[in-house]
Amino acid sequence: QLQLVESGGGLVQPGDSLQLSCTASGGTLNYYTIGWFRQAPGKEREGLSMFSLSDDNTYYADSAMGRFATSRDNAKKTVFLHINALEPEDTGVYSCAAGAFIPISPLWLQQPGRFHFWGQGTEVAVSS
Q: Which three-class secondary structure string do you get for the chain?
């Protein structure tokens, strides 16, 4: 059973950068796609990015284009979400999720139910 744990959230100021981590355990990761999602207060969950652990193929939603980037540390079984120039609108709970053999495409990012394993989320608050 794959388990995911997010970390790295906190209170930051506008303009700051942040690195969120998603660490996996309990399974073979080679064929998984990692999705990053955000749920802002009072809003629906939003898909931000997808990252293929088999070939590093990546997709970013329009809302994440330019300021968000993903990377990985294979030894630590961790995928990172880097966020630059944080804005108050970035406030929310950030979650990573994993799904096996999920294609990298915006259509799949819009279907969170396709991701079968979820972390508990890490909260990011952007405020001056």
A: CCEEEEECCEEECCCCCEEEEEEEECCCCCCEEEEEEEECCCCCEEEEEEEECCCCCEEECHHHCCCEEEEEECCCCEEEEEECCCCHHHCEEEEEEEEECCCCCHHHHCCHHHCCEECCCEEEEECC
CA distance 37 to 73: 20
Instruction: Give the whole-angstrom CA distance, residue 61 versus residue 48.
Output: 5
pLDDT over 90 percentage in the chain: 84
pLDDT given at position 75? 87
Residue 99: both structure tokens together: 């799904």
